[in-house]
Amino acid sequence: MTQGSVLLIYTGGTIGMKEDPMNQALKPFDFRGIMDEVPELRKFALTIDSYTFDPLIDSSDVEPLMWKQLALLIREKYDEYDGFVILHGTDTMAYSASALSFMLENLGKPVIFTGSQLPVGRPRTDGKENLVSSVEIATAKDSNGRPMVPEVCIFFNSKLYRGNRCTKVNATSFDAFSSPNYPALAEAGISIRYDAKRIHYPEQTAGPLAIHTELDTRVSIMKVHPGITESVARNCLLGEGIRACIIETYGSGNSISKDWFINIIREAAGKGKILLNITQCLAGEVNMDIYATGRALKDVGVISGGDMTTESALGKLFFLMGENSDNEEVKSLLSKNIRGEMSK
C-alpha cells in the first residue's frame, strides 16, 4: 500500500545524465527507468511517476516559456500527487524556482527543485542523495496530514531553501547553493529536521491553486562597476523596449554620484521606467537612507529591493509586469512581500 505520490519532472541538467558504455559520453537516460538508476527510491512506499520534457533543456537555455510549461503541468497534475520534484540544471535553478514561486498562487503542496553537480551514473554523484531526500520532502506530512513544506523550494547538499531566497554560489562544490538572507527550511541528516516557524503555510481562507503565466520580460540588469560608461548606463536604463531595470549597486544600495549617472537615472524615472535597487553583496539589504549616494538614487525615483536576490527580483518583475500594465502599480507592489521573497 502506497503512502503518498510524487511526480518527478525532468527538464534537463546533469542529474539525468549517464555515461555511454561505448564512448563514455554523457547522455540523458530514460526517466521511466528511474528506479533502476536510483534503486533507493524503491524503499519508499510511494507512487513515483515521471514526466520528461521533450526536448530536454540545458539550464543555460532556460526561458520563461519553460516556466509556463511547468506551471501548466503542475496545475494539470495538482490533484493527482502529494508533491512535485523538478530536476533542473544548477546554473539557472534559482531563477526558475524564484519565477515559479510567483507564478503559483495559493500553493498548498511542495514543489522541490533539485539537481546535481555530478551525473547520477558517476560513483561519487551527489544526485542520488539530492533526489531521494527531495522525494521524501515532497511527500512529507505533519501529524495533521498537512504537507510539511507547501512552498517552491530548492534542495541541495542536505539543505532545503525557499526557492526565491536562493542563489548559486559555487560552480564546483556539492554545496552549490546558499540562502544568505533567510535560514534553511529543513536540513537532512540522520533524519530531516524541519524548521516549521520558517515555512510559509497557506491561509485557511486561501482559494484553490491559481497560476499566472503572463510574464513581461522587458527587464534589463545593470551591474554598477568602476569605469561604467555613460553609453552603457544609457543603454541599460533607456534602451528601446526596456520597461524596468534592476540596478545592482554597491553595499547597502550605493552607486556612483557623478552628475551624468544621476541625470540618466532621473531621465529614466521621468519616463516612468521601473528602477529597482538590488545589492551586489551576497548578504544584507538595500537601505538608501544611510549614505548620500543611496539617497540620491531614492530621490530620483529608484525603489529599494530590500534583501531580495537578483534572481528573485527578476522573477517578481516578470510576474508583476505581466499582471499589471500600470508601472505605478508595479512600483507599489515591488516593496511588498508577496511570496516570502523579502524580509518584512
Describe this entry's structure for a reader:
By secondary structure, the protein is an alpha/beta fold. It contains 9 helices and 18 strands. It has helices at 34-37, 64-77, 93-103, 127-139, 230-238, 259-270, 292-299, 310-323, 327-334; strands at residues 5-10, 17-19, 26-28, 47-52, 83-87, 104-105, 111-114, 152-156, 159-162, 167-168, 177-178, 186-188, 192-194, 210-211, 219-223, 244-249, 274-279, 303-304. The chain has an 8-stranded mixed beta sheet, sandwiched between helices. Helix 2 (64-77) crosses helix 3 and helix 8 runs antiparallel to helix 9. The termini are far apart.
Number of strands: 18
The major pleated sheet works out as: 8 strands, mixed
Element order: H for helix, E for strand: EEEHEHEHEEHEEEEEEEEHEHEHEHH
Taking Cα atoms only, what radius of gyration do you get, to the nearest Å?
A: 21 Å
Give the overall shape.
globular
Number of helices: 9
Strand order of the largest sheet: 4-1-5-7-8-9-12-13
Give the N-to-C terminal Cα separation: 44 Å
Short précis:
The protein is an alpha/beta fold and 344 residues long. Helices cover 27% and strands 20% of the residues.
Task: Give the topology, please.
Layout: E1 5-10, E2 17-19, E3 26-28, H1 34-37, E4 47-52, H2 64-77, E5 83-87, H3 93-103, E6 104-105, E7 111-114, H4 127-139, E8 152-156, E9 159-162, E10 167-168, E11 177-178, E12 186-188, E13 192-194, E14 210-211, E15 219-223, H5 230-238, E16 244-249, H6 259-270, E17 274-279, H7 292-299, E18 303-304, H8 310-323, H9 327-334
Parallel strand pairs: 1-4, 1-5, 5-7, 7-8, 15-16, 16-17, 17-18
Antiparallel strand pairs: 2-3, 6-14, 8-9, 9-12, 10-11, 12-13
